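Work Package 3 (structural annotation) set out to generate three-dimensional models for the target panel prioritized at the project kickoff. During this period the team completed the workflow that converts sequence records into discrete structure tokens, so that structures can be stored uniformly alongside our sequence database. As a representative example, we reproduce one entry of 493 residues exactly as it appears in the project archive.
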Amino acid sequence: MRVCKGFAAMVILAFSQTLFLRLTPHVFAAPAQSPKGLRAGAAKLDVTPRLGLSVPGNMSDHKGAHVHDPLYVRALVLDDGRTSVAVVTCDCVALYDETIAAAKQIIEKQTGLISDRVAVAATHSHSAGPTVSIFQSDADRDYQRWVSIRIADAVRCAANNRRPAQIGWAVGSEPRAVFNRRYFMNPGTMPENPWGKTDDKVKMNPGVGNPNVVKPAGPIDPALPVVAVRDSDGDPIAVLANYTLHYVGGVGPSHISADYFGMWADVIEREWAAPATVNKSPMVAMLTNGCSANINNVDVLGSSSKTRPLSPYYQMDKVARMVADETLRVLRTVQYRDAVPLGARMSRIPLRVRKPAASEVAEARAILEQAKGRELRGLREVYARETILMAEYPDIMEVPVQALRIGDLGIAALPVEAFVELGLEIKQQSPFPTTFVMELCNGYFGYVPTVEGHEQGGYETWRARSSYLEINAAPALVGAALDLLKGVKSSEK
């Protein structure tokens, strides 16, 4: 389990849910006999936090003061008559595995959907509610509990909305919006890291037009896999897409926003939806994040270096429209199937934690003593606090990895912010003709760079609650994902 003091008690959600669960019958269970064809349902529910709570995603804390656009949890339930799976997205920066476990516990009790067949992914908006603690922003327990319930409610509603369906998928590409955000720099130009050293070989976000930039330190992944679900009348039920872009940002001051993920969904739900009918649930659009820990939307080396500062939401809207246009193009090419086999597998792998030495903890305490009574400033002070907090972490973390099968489509789910190289490797070696990877799915265990990325250094490798798994975590996670994909593909029903 993750370290989140006091929050483990959240599993005692049963206290507030027990009476409800006792009085509520199971509303969903796969039938004993397999009917012909597929059934599918989708739903979305609001999870916008009240104003005044922390908005995690930066090194300093700030409180939400305005809602620019609502946050949602979105769910898609697929049922082939014998096996059921669900994919859920939540507009937040990340979700602890405790939050998701509590939601899955309710889902299983209320719907009969087995927890290992439910994938819950964060979209990674940096302007959402306090679901996790990041640097000086702390999670809010009440909001975490409420999000757990809303995740379960969304899956239940999606199950209620099931109807005969068809499904298909295709893969597009949008390379214009994605850039590797780590760069090699000219000798002697590397700034200090939190420990006062300048031995990092790469820098994250060196600045647009920085003359000391040499070249990007890694690749990109422009692929845009799109899954389309429609009912027997041809009316859309859901669109599930995957794009490898960290987030866009550029919100107004202290604004709550789902970032470009929400804007993309608005376009798809508006332009791909069927005419409104009184007896059908609305179509739901869901965008999951690929392995984008070292990918963003900043064109450091391009012509954007000559542009003026952009107004809030301008770039976000531009990217959302670009990705939505490609999504709509791909949707028009999809060939639908009346029936596909479904499957899911999940395992937990033990990974070591990079914990600080006693001398590092003592040094960190001395730094924080000097900053006592005020907000922490600068990398040195912020990471001193992280060092002390990391000292309390367990030596080993049990990290969940999941694989889903939808016919000849494979989906891998990792609970980390993974370097793009991990996603590319999984897709290349997958036994499925089409595969995509959802990151920040089923938990939050920080950044996972490649082994080479650790050797290069840079922000994503700096030890903190945002990056703490062992150096060999990447090959371990890739290997586990591939094993699960092979297993779910070969499993007999």
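The radius of gyration is 22 Å.
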